[in-house]
Write a structure and sequence with these properties.
The protein is of the alpha+beta class and about 170 residues long. It has a domain of about 110 residues. The chain is built from 3 helices and 4 strands. It is rod-shaped.
């Protein structure tokens, strides 16, 4: 390779490097696509946040509905001493309140003394007074999330218990 050929190769390599450097500089200064990229990232983040908020809002609404349903069942049960043991009627009242016929409803009549502690119903407490009668209603349901979230199971079991005193 002669001296003229070597000089020509060096000159071509230097020119190519300058062109690449100039192209990178132009791309660094160009702002035309950066707004689109930022907007795409922001919209994606906000969409994930909105869907997550919707799912957890459904969780809060379901919990409130179960609490209301268990209270409705307990209110039905304390109407009368005979309704305090009417498990079918209590369950029906809870399901109607929740608007969901598939809820799992359990109820029981329990007698609790003021000193604390359950006694058989119809019995007397330590102070000689008859034990007050309570109706305890527990409502259970399962909530399925729309999407799966890291660290959160796909479905959550919810329950609510209310205990009201009969007279």
């Amino acid at each position: 390779m002669d001296l003229g050929q070597r000089h020509k190769t060096r000159k071509t390599a230097g020119t190519a490097m300058r062109r690449i450097a100039r192209g990178i500089g132009v791309m660094r200064r160009a702002r035309s696509g950066s707004l689109s990229v930022e907007m795409a990232l922001a919209v994606t983040f906000l969409l994930v946040l909105a869907v997550g908020s919707y799912d957890f809002g459904r969780f809060a609404m379901a919990k409130a509905s179960l609490s209301s349903a268990s209270r409705a069942g307990a209110i039905y049960g304390i109407q009368d001493l005979s309704t305090s043991t009417d498990a079918a009627g209590i369950a029906q009242a809870a399901r109607v309140d929740a608007g969901d016929g598939a809820l799992s409803v359990s109820s029981r009549q329990v007698c609790i003394c003021a000193a604390g502690g359950e006694v058989p119903c119809g019995g007397a407490c330590g102070d000689g007074l008859p034990a007050p009668v309570y109706v305890e209603v527990t409502v259970q349901d399962t909530l399925d999330f729309m999407f799966s979230y890291p660290g959160v199971p796909q479905s959550i079991s919810l329950s609510s218990t209310n205990q009201l005193r009969y007279r």
